[in-house]
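Listing 4. Sequential folding, example run.
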Amino acid sequence: MKLSLKLMSSALLTATVLSFASPSQAKTHRIIFANYFGPTHPNTLMMQKFKEDIEKKSNGAFKVTLKPNNEAGGEEKLVELIKRGTIQIAIVGGYIKNDEPSTANIEQPFIIDGWDHAKRVYTGNEEIHKALDGQYYEKTGVKIAGYVVNGFRQISSSKPITQLSDFGTVKLRTPLNDVFVETFKALGTNPTPLPMTELYTGLETGVVDGQDNPWATVKEMGWWEVQKYLLNSNHMFSPSFVLVNDKNFYSTLTADEKKIFDECMKDAIAYDWDISEKADAEALKFLTDKGLKLTVPDEKFKADMRKACEPVYEWFDKNFPNSKEFREFVLSKK
């Protein structure tokens, strides 16, 4: 009997040692998570939270390398790298419309009224995926895991814009995206597509007079150093897409690993929304403290901008599937 107990104890001890040893013997999933935002931008802080959480909760089964601030390339490069599986997670914007046109519908001007409205549209429900994602996964093998905040797009410029006619005096940089070109043509400016990586030099040398991006991005990218004026236009609310390579990465995870990954991603996205509105206000204060002059449009200027952009909706409806349906979805969340 004593011998039997001794053998049982030895067996239990061996099993325990093996169970503790197994995590170190398990496959380590190495993740590259990239974006093109600055080091203290909310989307970069979101990446840091995801890294800390998943490495801790998985007991090291996931190892995450962060590449913010264009370290892995600009937006167009990130989209290509994640489709190849060279990187596993990326935060990008509307450039993915080149693979799935319906995703362009996020950039329709003046359809989001404020932060609470944006949250109701982009968080807390699966309806948004049905309304927006289209066939992106089927075409690319990449999942849209969720939406984080780029923010309300505003305008910085070297010349003041205080009324609609002032748009005609500036050459405004736009992303490499015809959605922005059409919007700013409607507003009366001269839109000039330019990669973000070339924008600082373009503003500094006068290749362009201004640009449109959320306040936090203007602050993080240092464009305020070569700009004098700000326009609180709120002309678009831009979410960013969190992309996850499925074919070469996510589909290879076990059910338990997927659960940890999904929980950490959900928490990181919620954190991004929690900090973004405050960061937006803080960035605007930073910019005005640096001496940039802010114009807040009066009701007439707002109405003039909205009226000028009405033809853009017709252009969307002709060029992008489900455009009208997406506008109706957004309006239903007011």
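-- end of first protein; second protein begins --
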Amino acid sequence: MKNLILILFISLTFKHLNAQVSVITDQFSTNLTKKDLNFSGDRKLFAIAVNDQHTKNYIVVSKNKRGAKNDILSIDKFTKKKGKIFEKTFTTQFTHKTNLSIAFVQDKMMYKDIDKDGHMEFMYIVKKNKDGMNSPLTKVIGLIVYKNKAYNLWIDASDNFKTTHFSKKFKELPEHISTEFINFWDSIRKK
């Protein structure tokens, strides 16, 4: 009986592993530098390796220098091409007139192959403060990356963070994709 249970457990485990669409791994992302991948910012805040069924990818969040006149947060996705070469397949930036006003929220993100095409979609959260990190929060943005294009939704201080607003491009997302991300957005604490 024990052997039967063990065999059943092992077969279910392998079945689950084979069904896995994507793998999120640290690989060399912890020690990643601009020499490894030419990400947009001057300093790396966060990097992660995301391997889906068809591609190996790195996503890097970086910022411009501390003490700069303005604040720029960049999000770049690099996809492995031939050999060991990684090509930048997505990039976007968030800017603010005051340094240290934009924050990347590392503990609220979503990675999922919603449309089951073997490629990973993801959502990151970015916060903007009025005039530096100790000033009042003015906006919380959800960045969705689907097929290497950006779609945004947000809440802001103008209506006490009650209404979710959507970018014009958001309506281009297939309904089942937008619904999945909106459900995630609605489930997280944003302020």
